[in-house]
Amino acid sequence: MRWAAPLARDVQTLHLTKGERVPDYAVIGDVSETLRAALASGMASLVPLPTVQVHDLQGTISTSPALVTVCLYDVVEDASAKNRPRQRRPGPGGTLIVQRPPMALLLRYMITPWAGDRPTTSCSAASCRSSTTARSCMARR
To answer: Is 141 within 8 Å of 109 (Cβ atoms)?
Structure first.
């Protein structure tokens, strides 16, 4: 297969209108926060209520009160989405803006319950499994 130079009309052009945002590293933080909120919501009926935190697992982790940590441990490009077609949208003055699609990432999280006793830890772990129905936010491997 030979690679051909792109035509001038296929070259990526990025024109931002006022107020339009370009996704950046903060998007990963937003996914982590959404996952944390979904877990906290799913565990709202537990007594005692565990705290759910996005955590880097560095240092000592308190087990009282019960805690569930959400740790992002792997970020890779989603290879299945690499060959998506370019996005085309109308531009100013009747022009056509052609852009590469946003990079798709696969985020893998480790969700760990921490508690001072085994029954509380087991209950938190079972609740973690049942409250993570939003699989789009979770790693599938």
So the answer is: no
